[in-house]
Amino acid sequence: MLVKQTTKIIAILVFLMTSVSAFAISGVPDDQHQEGGGDKVDTPEEIKAYISHHLKDSHDFHLYTNHETGTHVGFPLPVIVWTSEGLKTFMSSEFHHDDNGQVIVNKDGVQLTKIHSKIYELAPGADAVVFDDHHHAENAHKVLDFSITKSVFGMLLTGILMLLGFVALAKGYKKGAIPTGFSRVLEPLVIYVRDEIARPNIGEKKYKKFMSFLLTVFFFIWILNLLGLTPLGFNVTGQIAVTTCLAIFTVVIYLFSGTKDFWGHTLWMPGVPYILRPILAVIELIGFVVIKPFSLLVRLFANITAGHFVVMTLIALMITMKEAFGPAVSTGMSLVLSLFIMVIEILVAFLQAFIFTMLSSLFIGMAVEEHDHH
Amino acid sequence: MDQLLNDFSPGLFFMQAILLLILIVLMKKFAWKPILEALQTREDGIKDALDAAQNAKLELENLQADNEKLLQEARMERETLLKDARDIKAKMIEEAKDEAETQANKMIEQAQVAIESEKKSAMVELKKQVADLSLEIAEKVVRTELSSKDKQLELVETMLAEKSLN
User: CB B12 to CB A242 under 8 A?
Assistant: First the structure.
């Protein structure tokens, strides 16, 4: 058992190492590197740009850049875009790490370029991007981007990790009622979600139907939050599209499982004057359809984005404070502060997963509640 | 807000929706369902075992209570038996006493009656004896008295005198 696990871990490590080093070897010296102009990220503006770049999704898995040789370490990810000429796929390495619309990829007559982590299609006939005063592209428009971006890659990784872990737990029960090894860690978490989140909020009778969603979402968010704290630099749950999707899942589930009582209370609130009922119905509807999911998606997005921002800013302190305090003090300060925030972030990673699942089950609980008839 | 809308990627949203849906389905089939079922079975098993233990304990307590009750009953029965016996004993003694007394009284009475009748018969006998004796004596006396003529006359005279005196 132990041997098997050790081999598994080694296999993963080897996979990560080789993929990184393979790309490092094949890494092309990048002549067109912009903004920093090929030098280190060491001015406040560059740090700000670096952080905002990190907070966005990206089309390649970038670990770090050696600015002296101009070598990027990481690996490219597939780009899948829906253009005016149909679906186009290629590897992100074709952009050569350009993120400013300088490199134009021609795919069967479609001119594609990448500006601030978004892929644009140039207007027919254009061969360079023209920017206006606000640095918006004038002669290009965004395309539907189904690429395996870093976030999608992170989600796939999370999904695989979850499947590995929990299928092992599920199989463990065939051998005996008490799980062994790592499953012993996972089991209390599953029980925690069931007994502390789903059961009290949804109710003993109906919670079972929603367990798959709640458990999946809880572990999905938690693992992604934790992945975001690793040096791999994922920021999946800090992508507003991801949190929106999660929130919409919750909304769809609770709206579709709403009982007659729920709709009765929402649309025609008993016990209040008739003249107020339509007004209350509008308020309740907006609450359930817009405000609740919005609070869900913004809470998760803002917490994780802010966390990444703060951690990166604190790490950058060792550069920004070097002038004032000298390298030793600024590095020490940065280390202590970022360690402190990092510990809090580990807590936040769990807390946000918990809150999202908790509120989801609370809303589902509201929708499936059977009221006593007054 | 503008920044947020600009950052929103429909493609990523779509990918996320598909992936999450697939993940939920896969996890449900291969992980959550068996896990939750196994947990439920285990918990039911534990609950049943606990209930059984509780029942056994209750049964034992009931048994003990029954034993206690039986013991109590036996004790009470002994108590009543002893009391009854004591009562009977006292009653018997009392009865015997009464019986003896009446018997004694009766015997005394009988004895007295017997004594009385004996006394009477004795008296009668005595009287008879005395009468016989007197008669004999009187005969003897008369015989001697009447042996001579004088004496006979004297006697007649005396007797006559006595008669007249009367």
Answer: yes
